[in-house]
Specification:
single chain; 471 residues; mainly beta; Methylamine Dehydrogenase, Chain H; five-stranded antiparallel sheet; 31 strands; globular; Integrin alpha FG-GAP repeat containing 2; Integrin_alpha_N
Length: 471
Amino acid sequence: MRSVSYVQRVALEFSGSLFPHAICLGDVDNDTLNELVVGDTSGKLSVYKNDDSRPWLTCSCQGMNLVVAVSAEGWFHLCDLTPAKSLDGSGHHETLGGEEQRPVFKQHIPANTKVMLISDIDGDGRCELVVGYTDRVVRAFRWEDLGEGAEHPMGQLVSLKKWMLEGQVDSLSVTPGPLGVPELMVSQPGCAYAILLCTWNKDPGATPTSEGPMEGTREPLAARDVVLHQTSGRIHNKNVSTHLIGNIKRGHSPDSSASGLFALCTLDGTLKLMEEADRLLWSVQVDHQLFALEKLDVTGNGHEEVVACAWDGQTYIIDHNRTVVRFQVDENIRAFCAGLYACKDSRNSPCLVYVTFNQKIYVYWEVQLERMESTNLLKVLEAQPEFRELLGELGVGETRDWWGCWESWVWVSPGACGCRHPVAQVPADPPASVSPSDPDELPAARALLHQTLYHPNQPPQCSPAGPQDPT
């Protein structure tokens, strides 16, 4: 396991008590650039944009275009902000005369909300609202329009289904099933999970009911539509808190019907990557308490890595081949999320977001790695097809036989941007036991090595007449 250091970060100002799940990244003003939305326990939403430490927009029960906020008391707020609002000199929204903007829609649903998910869970192309509660209940809602042509959305939430779970609900996620149909997943204690079946499209007799005036109506308790799965392996604590994340991308796969990947983590340090229902790809045990699980493509190859964060700031990044990279934040963390955020240059980049106990939000942007696995200079050179051809033109034998004649050291040094760059040191003379067949082979190979490392895009030059120091 190797460690990495990211130095490009911004510190955002935040005051209040944050609920761990009330933080997300997304495009809230339809400009294709993602913003950071944070909500505190008093009902205030703060929207951060770019690298400004001050919130771009802060108001009570407010958000941006189609931002959904659900309170613990059960109040569902649908928020919309028109772009015609005035801005001050620093680009922040002004409020005139103490005027407080209000949500465009408000409806009461069952209280004690714990987690929330907005996604297409039944494959009809429309997003549903899924809410997990502290009493081990999960409910699904759908938005139904009641009018058209109005400036703001007109409609209501209707209840689709209610599921009862055996254990506490800590995470909700959606992942493609064996046939490519979305599967709604919920975490269960002891590194377990359950699949919630969406049967309202199959049961023509089931009619959605509004959760507003009809909140007291009887709801069918769908315990039979909960399929519980216990992951393989030994679990020391059957009641340990568990989180999951689904729909982990594995590149541009031509098989669109393949099952999705999903990951689970527990508070006692267990990490697992799963495919389908019971196929375990790998399992990792760490000595930290993991409380948050995300996914992020840090290599840019289309394969999303699993990102897990512990209370003490230790962050683990693991790829599909079980290669582990860790990153340490020097503060205790109360909330964490990962995704794309437009911090600089008006473009989205991978980022890690940490909320500390010191009223600060740290955003590490441009979180990228050239590769996840560790490597050495020989592997890097052998990956280039022209390297072996050039060695053959110089009359050098097998690459590994030639490399055995050298003492070489490869290390990494942090650059100005926080990335790590390979540096090679090669002795001026080969060992005494090696006698090249041609005295010109040594300087030619040395020059080839220097050009491959430092000038890979330039055409090869003629071999030098005498020995030269490539450094």
